[in-house]
Amino acid sequence: MPLDGVKNIVLVLSGKGGVGKSSVTLQLALALSLQGKSVGILDIDLTGPSIPRLVGLEDAKITQSPSGWLPVPVHNATSSDTPRGALHCMSLGFLLRDRGDAVIWRGPKKTAMIRQFLSDVSWGQTDYLLIDTPPGTSDEHIALAEQLLTLSTADAALAAQNNLPRLTGAVLVTTPQAVATSDVRKEANFCVKTSIPVLGVIENMSGYACPCCGEVSNLFSSGGGEVMAQQLGIPFLGKVPVDVKFGELVEGKMEPFSDDEDEEEGESDGVAKQEEVQPAEPDDRPLVEKYPEGWSYPRFEGFAKTIIGHVQQTAAS
Ligand SMILES: Nc1ncnc2c1ncn2[C@@H]1O[C@H](COP(=O)(O)OP(=O)(O)OP(=O)(O)O)[C@@H](O)[C@H]1O
Ligand code: SF4
């Protein structure tokens, strides 16, 4: 059966492009995984699939198995020091022959691809399948909603009775500016029309976090997403500032956050270490091997817990 083993489906939607939807999808996935949940990311941004680049696995290829396409593993589950659920992803980017190949498809071809992604991928036991969508409400969204409403249900009791995935809801990503929030209202409207519950709004790029002290200053504006959520009567999940660390984490250029960030480097008890400096070896391993603890931005832990809490509270008794 399509989506066999998937328990919850969460859509990540944005009205405008470039507001950080794919980055938010990845960070939510990492945060859910760090809560011990097994997670899949399905990237249906067919014309601009960015998940393969964000997980540092651009050269990975999809394999076929008797049960369907196997998604690409980002990391496996661990139960040791840092318990973590497995993370897999699927994207058109893995199927393109060349990274730079342009995808110029008409609606029916996009619809067919989305159908295939939803019916032919063998996710295995997956607590949360996050779907990264293109911006706006395009052919992809309509195809996705039509398919999901036949393969899953937003009704928790019905999902449990029929062993169907639960269409848990959508997370809306916006920046604080009015031009972005007015577009995200259309996404909220799309959810109402398609009976997809809204889990909440994340206001990304909300203020600027100083790279030295972390102080967040509102260079442009902040709070537009929160006001919009209040006006629409939908939950507000929280804000994420423009943070160099966030950008570098999702683009995989830096060490993950750790508690020892303030440790002194190079000196101990006032005595300089006399270590021979070795030239750094190029490290071409996939990001997941370089950063086994994951590259999760701390603020997302709260978002992940809210989503898990919502699922538990609204579970069919
Ligand atoms: N809070 C943030 N702080 C710093 N950089 C960010 C933040 N959010 C996103 N970015 C950066 O902004 C760029 C665009 O992000 P992303 O690709 O996630 O946007 P998107 O909405 O998915 O775009 P598209 O519409 O093209 O799919 C990326 O380089 C990402 O690293
Ligand atoms: S934001 Fe304030 S504390 Fe941080 S570096 Fe700038 S001036 Fe210094």
TrEMBL record:
[4Fe-4S] cluster binds at C210, C213. Residues 253-292 are annotated as: Disordered. Keywords: 4Fe-4S, ATP-binding, Cytoplasm, Iron, Iron-sulfur, Metal-binding, Nucleotide-binding. GO terms for cellular component: cytosol. InterPro entries: Mrp/NBP35_ATP-bd (IPR019591), NUBP2/Cfd1_eukaryotes (IPR028600), P-loop_NTPase (IPR027417), YlxH/NBP35 (IPR033756). SUPFAM superfamilies: P-loop containing nucleoside triphosphate hydrolases (SSF52540). Residues 270-292 have a biased composition (Basic and acidic residues). GO terms for molecular function: 4 iron, 4 sulfur cluster binding; ATP binding; ATP-dependent FeS chaperone activity; metal ion binding. It is found in: Cytoplasm. Its main location: cytoplasm. Belongs to the Mrp/NBP35 ATP-binding proteins family. NUBP2/CFD1 subfamily. PANTHER family: CYTOSOLIC FE-S CLUSTER ASSEMBLY FACTOR NUBP2, NUCLEOTIDE-BINDING PROTEIN NBP35 YEAST -RELATED. Component of the cytosolic iron-sulfur (Fe/S) protein assembly (CIA) machinery. Required for maturation of extramitochondrial Fe-S proteins. The NBP35-CFD1 heterotetramer forms a Fe-S scaffold complex, mediating the de novo assembly of an Fe-S cluster and its transfer to target apoproteins. This is Cytosolic Fe-S cluster assembly factor CFD1. It comes from Penicillium angulare.
